[in-house]
């Protein structure tokens, strides 16, 4: 994965609500990221397909790790509340 952290995006969607994939050519797929107010299309070739999949997996793992951490914090707060009779 390349480190392009200094690059600014040409287009931005605050939250992706839907992802659609379309055929463009034999070795190119068009991925549409659909947001609330606009859609951005990205052409994905076989050259970057593996990196695209790795990034998607990394995002998935990070989101679930964050959710697990938040659940652990909430569970600990509930246990502390129960111990101190805050309910």
Protein described:
It is elongated, with a radius of gyration of 20 Å. Helices cover 40% and strands 25% of the residues. It contains 1 helix and 3 strands, in the order βββα. It has a 3-stranded antiparallel beta sheet, with no helix packed on it. The chain is an alpha+beta fold. A hairpin with a 2-residue loop joins strand 1 and strand 2 (28-34).
Strand content range? 25-35%
Give me the count of strands: 3
The number of helical runs is 1
User: Percent range for helical residues?
Assistant: 40-55%
- What's the gyration radius in Å? 20 Å
- How are the strands of the largest sheet arranged? 1-2-3
* Element-by-element helix/strand order: EEEH
Q: Let me know the largest β-sheet.
A: 3 strands, antiparallel
Low-confidence stretches: none
From the N-terminal CA to the C-terminal CA, the straight-line distance is 49 Å
Helix/sheet category = alpha+beta
